[in-house]
Amino acid sequence: MYDLDHIIHKTYQSVQMSADPSVDRLSGILERFRVRAELHHTGRLCGVEHFDACDGHGYLHVLRHGDLQVSHPHAQELPRTLHLHEPTLLLYPRPLTHRFEDPPAEGADLTCARLDFDGGACNPLARALPSLVVLPLARVSGLELALELLFAEADQARCGQRLLADRIFEVVVIQLLRWLLDHPHEAGVRPGFIAGLSDPRLARALVAIHDAPGQTWSLQRMAECAGMSRTAFANAFRETVGQTPADYLADWRMALARSRLRQGRPIKLLADELGYANPSALSRAFAARVGVSPRDWLATVAVAGSAPPFAGRERNA
Question: Are 209 and 251 in contact (CB under 8 A)?
Answer without folding.
Answer: no
